[in-house]
């Protein structure tokens, strides 16, 4: 067929020739024409109905006068119903409904009705009408044959959808399609009358347009999919309103992929050549393109957990990797267009990612093979397999399939085989096989065929089963195929894999046939048929466990009514011993039961999961505008015997905001697709000759959506007093990542509804929900998050149900959940007097200090200050735990000093806790500590708590914690230590302190080396940085200070920050001390290697040439170093007896702090740990040159003796070092014996002369300006780093208590 040279021409549209046969004059204007089987029905404006044969003959039948047709409310009332009774009544619009066998009519006075012939003959005496009494403003009508619905457009702008009651024949209102004031506040009642209503060819959506313009799309039972009266359709990008699109006529194209529209006339002012004139728009023909869910035509897809949308030439999947980022062009069951003229039809607009569970939001777009489409356009059915890896599509003839893994299409090799089969009942995947029902044109035979995916696509490899009647629907369940046929019968087949020789095929055998003709009036009315394991029994009550698995029931969607037929188990139960399952006698089915009305889609799964039985054994229904329903099984707890009076299943309705296309059973999610729009009218100028239609319409894309439904179900169960079931269900889902969100949503929705209700609620649900949430460990967070997202007015109602916030706060503290406690604090601050919130804040602050939660501590300091400053005013301001600190409540503990931290303002990420602030402090010797008098008490109060904490840390010898605490909270350690020198800052027990420091800083206790001991301090080559610096401090008094700064810079840059290179100031210091100095200074850095950013541009500015020189020198030294055996041993000993680099730097920093504060006993302890005699020397120099408290000297002396005794007995490794410093210790005893009683000791400070202060300030700025790193990089280097470094900078500048400096903290 394809081989013929004229094949292409044969595929073209045939030439049509129209000629006039006959003219009939009906004497009055014709209002409506309808084709009824072999006849033509014509309604004229004189109130007559003419039945005309297609030949143009009236066959002698008289025209029927409407006035003679009896109308009543239903067909049961007396046959002589009232007549319309007006001479001038005529039909304005009518449509024939084949499945209802009658006409839906709209009269010129706005009344609507349904006329049906009582017998088969069509005469006036045999016609009878029914009409609803409440519709008086009808304008037009459209009929849906599949669902037996009549949609009447009304002058009010709503569409009333009626159905016929099977028993009485009355017209029943099914639902209304109307815009709500909530969604369309400015337009909902200003649309004008409904102009046109059109159902799509597959009867799954209806489109509605109004007199004032606008187009909307609705699902069968009233879920709104699209409306062009809001959003980007109605407004330009600058916010001005567009004229709505006016439509005078519209019609659907093949398979519902296109909507053809004639746009109406409308004048519009546009400016041309600067003279204003009104241009009348010509009517234009527009084409809207849609894609639809495969469920609309192939309902067997409802047991899949994927969303599959089909367009006329492509498919959209929500699974598979996003290999193409093409844009889908429309939405949900049917959706919105991109205009055919638009050049933007395939924009590559990127979307952001959705939740991790759903992966990305891109669709996987599969372009259907053009070879197949050429002769088989458009696509009629599509199906995807369970794993989402293979797709099959059906066009006009044959079918084709595609693998997402290999990205290849498989088509029929023999074109004749393709062109002689028409798929009739849809298709489905079973493992690796494609099952489909088709009509074989060449044999004139209905067939059921099974093709293997992996073999070539050819009838030779297919398993064919002949069928007697046309198949309308097909579905696969486990290893069974269920088929619904045109004679209203259902047939069940078993399907199994067979390997005969090299070929693998599937065998199909008939299991059972069930006739449904007594229940179904017309086979076309069946929307879907599925086999499920859902039954009214739970398997617990069944006599045999395997029956629970085989409890198949048939679900039939009959025009929106869901009918269930279960197997009849009332007969004798015979346990089959037969080995072949296909031979077993299948149980008959019970009579059908109606489960639900207005059902559009049904989802079930045949998978089983012991943990989530509720969700997996449920039946999910989509009911259009009414939302969703779930038929949920109820299980007795712990397999107790169920109560006989309790139902085993319950139908729960719930609303969701999206149109559901798939249900993820275990994940408690519904997936959907929604039409999204993108405006591009800004590309066009306003003064173009006319506003193009393309510009009027935004570009449409389809977006994947998902929604959690669990909270709705839990709430419905609680309303019905099924708390135990709700608990079982919630516990089975508590591992889901969004479970906390579910609880929060439920609490929030109930709270909003009940707290804002105008009337009193007789049986409030909030206490029940609160009690329910307490069953979960997340209770405290859920309540506080809900409160924080709710307005203050509702808090009293909420806490009346869940408990006093003070008690909840205390529970958080007991559970050590400090972040949640902090959130409760904000609630307490709003609900209680300041004294109460201060008391609770103090509790929390102390606990946070104890646990080292520094972020929280900083927030608490700010919070306590905010309470203090706001105490006079009411209500207090609410600082939220997430906010950045306000400028009023900032860190006033950085008072009176110049601090310039290493971050520059641009580098600070906005979401990090940060503060940019310039403090100008009063200058003068008094150096006032606070800018506001009212703050004094508050600051004092906070300081007292900080002091108390510091005292505890010192008493417990927790120096590491003390360092972190001071660095993180900007605690003025030096000044506090000066005050506490004789009290808390004394070392009571040197041995305990030594042991504790070894443990805290992971510093190994020294061991005695095997070889002869040579001390590091005698061997210049191994001297460390600290030795050199500290030694040189004793040399000249002024360099003392500079050396301190140098030291703390080195240490800080390598420890609290742990990955910042040497700063400018260090290098200066280093290079100003001669060559031997440089050698020692740079060697530790070269060990760090990767951690230092040595060559970055900011490090080397002024002294770059000198630095280069230093480095080459170091390299040469290293390369030419030749070590002897003993030296190598010594190095290894050195390394073994040292702790981590970071600990070393932290210890030096503490040494520096204690030295400045004059706590010499602590300096001695740290000197001992570092085993540096130079440190001990330096302390003794200080003791000799300055006047030191005799008590402290005595303490040091006794302490050192204790250490000596301990070293002799327990730790001989210390002995060599103690021997080295023996001479110094003797000096010390001499001094103590003299018993010098000096006056109060002063720490080393600079005499306050301007010459000395200003260069120092310069240096500190220089040092911090360089070597900076973006905060983000730093953040990675451990919890401590960033904030600690803040204060280390602050600490070293402690002595300069006067002068006004800028302070910029970040």
TrEMBL record:
The name this protein goes by in its record: Guanine nucleotide exchange factor subunit RIC1
Transmembrane segments: none
Biased composition (Basic and acidic residues): 1281-1290
UniProt keywords, alphabetically: Cytoplasm, Guanine-nucleotide releasing factor, Membrane, Phosphoprotein, Repeat, WD repeat
Quaternary structure and partners: Forms a complex with RGP1; the interaction enhances RAB6A GTPase activity. Interacts (via central domain) with RGP1. Interacts with RAB6A; the interaction is direct with a preference for RAB6A-GDP. Interacts (via C-terminus domain) with RAB33B; the interaction is direct with a preference for RAB33B-GTP. Interacts with GJA1.
Database matches in Gene3D superfamilies: YVTN repeat-like/Quinoprotein amine dehydrogenase
Function of the protein: The RIC1-RGP1 complex acts as a guanine nucleotide exchange factor (GEF), which activates RAB6A by exchanging bound GDP for free GTP, and may thereby be required for efficient fusion of endosome-derived vesicles with the Golgi compartment. The RIC1-RGP1 complex participates in the recycling of mannose-6-phosphate receptors. Required for phosphorylation and localization of GJA1. Is a regulator of procollagen transport and secretion, and is required for correct cartilage morphogenesis and development of the craniofacial skeleton.
Annotated ranges, domain RIC1 C-terminal alpha solenoid region: 711-869
Chain residue ranges for the region called Disordered: 323-343, 869-888, 1239-1306
Compartments (UniProt record): Cytoplasm, Cytosol; Membrane
């Amino acid at each position: 067929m394809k081989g013929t040279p004229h094949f292409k021409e044969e595929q073209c549209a045939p030439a049509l020739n129209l000629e006039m046969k006959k003219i009939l004059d009906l004497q009055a204007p014709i209002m409506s024409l309808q084709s009824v089987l072999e006849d033509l029905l014509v309604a004229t404006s004189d109130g007559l109905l003419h039945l005309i044969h297609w030949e143009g003959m009236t066959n002698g039948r008289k025209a029927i006068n409407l006035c003679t047709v009896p109308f009543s409310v239903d067909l049961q009332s007396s046959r002589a119903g009232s007549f319309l009774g007006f001479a001038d009544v005529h039909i304005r619009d009518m449509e024939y409904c084949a499945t209802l066998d009658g006409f839906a009519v709209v009269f010129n006075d706005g009344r609507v009705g349904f006329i049906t012939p009582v017998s088969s003959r069509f005469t006036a005496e045999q016609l009878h009408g029914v009409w609803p009494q409440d519709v008086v403003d009808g304008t037009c009508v459209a009929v849906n044959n599949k669902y037996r619905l009549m949609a009447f457009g009304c002058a009010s702008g709503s569409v009333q959808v009626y159905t016929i009651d099977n028993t009485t024949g009355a017209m029943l209102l099914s639902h209304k399609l109307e815009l709500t004031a909530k969604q369309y506040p400015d337009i909902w009642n200003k649309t004008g009358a409904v102009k046109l209503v059109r159902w799509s060819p597959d009867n799954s959506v209806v489109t509605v347009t109004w007199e004032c313009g606008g187009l909307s799309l609705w699902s069968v039972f009233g879920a709104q999919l699209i409306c062009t009266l809001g959003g980007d359709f109605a407004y330009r990008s600058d916010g001005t309103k567009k004229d709505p699109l006016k439509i005078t006529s519209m019609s659907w194209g093949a398979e519902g992929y296109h909507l053809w529209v004639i746009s109406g006339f409308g004048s519009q002012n546009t400016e041309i050549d600067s003279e204003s004139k009104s241009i009348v728009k010509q009517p234009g023909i527009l084409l809207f393109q849609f894609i639809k869910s495969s469920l609309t035509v192939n309902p067997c897809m409802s047991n899949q957990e994927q969303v599959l949308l089909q367009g006329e030439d492509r498919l959209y999947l929500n699974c598979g990797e996003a290999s193409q980022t093409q844009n889908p062009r429309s939405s949900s069951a049917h959706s919105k267009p991109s205009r055919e003229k638009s050049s933007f039809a395939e924009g590559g607009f990127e979307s952001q990612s959705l939740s991790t569970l759903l992966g990305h939001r891109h669709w996987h777009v599969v372009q259907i093979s053009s070879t197949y489409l050429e002769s088989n356009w458009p696509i009629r059915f599509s199906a995807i397999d369970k794993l989402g890896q293979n797709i099959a599509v059906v066009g006009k003839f044959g079918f084709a399939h595609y693998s997402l893994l290999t990205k290849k299409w498989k088509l029929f090799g023999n074109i004749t085989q393709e062109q002689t089969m028409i798929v009739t009942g849809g298709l489905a995947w079973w493992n690796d096989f494609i099952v489909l029902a088709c009509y074989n044109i060449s044999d004139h035979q209905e067939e059921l065929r099974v093709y293997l995916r992996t073999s070539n696509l050819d009838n030779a490899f297919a398993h064919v089963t002949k069928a007697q009647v046309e198949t309308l629907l097909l579905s696969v369940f486990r290893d069974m195929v269920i088929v619904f046929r045109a004679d209203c019968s259902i047939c069940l087949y078993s399907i199994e894999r067979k390997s005969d020789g090299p070929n693998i095929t599937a065998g199909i055998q008939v299991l059972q046939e069930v006739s449904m003709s007594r229940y179904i009036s017309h086979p076309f009315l069946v929307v879907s048929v599925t086999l499920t394991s859902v039954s009214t029994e739970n398997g617990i009550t069944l006599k045999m466990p395997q029956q629970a698995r085989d409890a198949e029931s048939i679900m039939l969607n009959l025009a929106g009514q869901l009918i269930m037929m279960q197997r009849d188990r009332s007969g004798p139960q015979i346990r089959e011993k037969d080995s072949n399952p296909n031979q077993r006698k299948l149980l008959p089915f019970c009579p059908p039961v109606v489960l639900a009305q207005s059902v559009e889609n049904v989802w079930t799964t045949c998978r089983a999961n012991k943990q989530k039985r509720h969700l997996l054994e449920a039946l999910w229904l989509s009911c259009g505008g009414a939302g969703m329903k779930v038929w949920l099984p109820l299980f007795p707890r712990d397999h107790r015997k169920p109560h006989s009076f309790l139902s085993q299943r319950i139908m729960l309705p719930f609303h969701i905001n999206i149109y559901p296309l798939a249900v993820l059973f275990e994940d408690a999610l519904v997936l959907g697709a929604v039409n999204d729009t993108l405006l591009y009218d800004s590309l066009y100028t306003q003064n173009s000759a006319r506003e193009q239609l393309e510009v009027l319409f935004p570009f449409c894309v389809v977006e994947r959506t998902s929604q959690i439904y669990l909270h709705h179900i839990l709430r419905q169960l609680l309303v019905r007093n099924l708390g135990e079931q709700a608990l079982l269900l919630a516990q089975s889902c508590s591992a889901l990542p969004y479970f906390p969100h579910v609880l929060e949503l439920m609490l929030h929705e109930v709270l909003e509804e009940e707290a804002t209700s105008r009337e009193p609620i007789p049986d409030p649900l909030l206490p029940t929900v609160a009690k329910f949430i307490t069953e979960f460990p997340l209770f405290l967070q859920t309540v506080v998050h809900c409160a924080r997202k709710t307005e203050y007015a509702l808090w009293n109602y909420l806490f009346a149900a869940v408990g006093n916030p003070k008690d909840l706060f205390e529970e958080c503290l007991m559970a050590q959940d400090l972040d949640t406690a902090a959130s409760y604090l904000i609630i307490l601050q709003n609900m209680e007097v300041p004294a109460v919130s201060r008391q609770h804040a103090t509790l929390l602050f102390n606990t946070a200090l104890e646990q080292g939660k520094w972020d929280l501590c900083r927030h608490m300091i700010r919070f306590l200050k905010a309470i203090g400053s706001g105490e006079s005013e009411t209500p207090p301001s609410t600082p939220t735990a997430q906010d950045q600190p306000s400028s009023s409540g900032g860190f006033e503990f950085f008072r009176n000093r110049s601090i310039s931290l290493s971050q520059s303002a641009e580098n600070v990420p906005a979401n990090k806790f940060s503060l940019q602030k310039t403090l100008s402090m009063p200058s003068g010797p008094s150096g006032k500590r606070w800018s506001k008098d009212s703050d004094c008490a508050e600051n004092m109060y906070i300081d007292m708590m900080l002091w108390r904490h510091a005292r505890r840390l010192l008493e417990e010898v927790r120096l590491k914690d003390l360092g972190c605490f001071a660095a993180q909270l900007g605690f003025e350690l030096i000044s506090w230590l000066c005050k506490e020198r004789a009290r808390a800052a004394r070392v009571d027990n040197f041995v305990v302190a030594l042991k504790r420091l070894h443990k805290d800083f992971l510093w190994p206790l020294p061991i005695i080396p095997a070889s002869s001991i040579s001390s590091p301090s005698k061997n210049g080559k191994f001297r460390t940085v600290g030795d050199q610096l500290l030694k040189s401090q004793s040399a000249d008094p002024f360099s003392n200070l500079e050396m301190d700064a140098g030291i703390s810079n080195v240490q800080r840059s390598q420890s609290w920050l742990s990955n910042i290179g040497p700063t400018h100031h260090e290098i200066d210091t280093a290079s100003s001390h001669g060559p031997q100095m440089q050698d020692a200074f740079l060697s530790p850095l070269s060990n760090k290697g990767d951690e230092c950013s040595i060559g970055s541009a900011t490090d080397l500015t002024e002294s770059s040439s000198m630095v280069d020189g230093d480095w080459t020198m170091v390299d040469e030294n290293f390369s030419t170093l030749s070590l002897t055996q003993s030296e190598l041993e010594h190095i290894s000993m050195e390394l073994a007896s040292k702790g981590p680099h970071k600990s070393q730097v932290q210890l030096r920093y503490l040494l520096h702090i204690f030295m400045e504060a004059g706590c010499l006993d602590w300096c001695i302890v740290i000197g001992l740990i570092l085993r540096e005699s130079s440190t001990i020397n330096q302390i003794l120099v200080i003791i000799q040159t300055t006047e030191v408290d005799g008590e402290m000297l005595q303490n040091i002396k006794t302490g050192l003796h204790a250490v000596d005794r301990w070293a002799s007995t327990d730790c001989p490794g210390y002995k060599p070092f103690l021997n080295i410093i023996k001479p110094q210790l003797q000096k010390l005893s001499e001094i103590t014996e003299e018993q010098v009683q000096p006056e109060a000791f002063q720490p080393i400070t600079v005499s306050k002369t301007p010459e000395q202060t200003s260069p120092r300030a310069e240096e500190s700025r220089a040092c911090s300006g360089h070597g900076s790193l973006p905060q983000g990089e730093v953040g990675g280097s451990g919890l401590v780093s960033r904030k600690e470094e803040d204060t280390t900078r602050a600490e070293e500048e402690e002595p300069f208590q006067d002068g006004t400096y800028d302070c910029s903290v970040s």
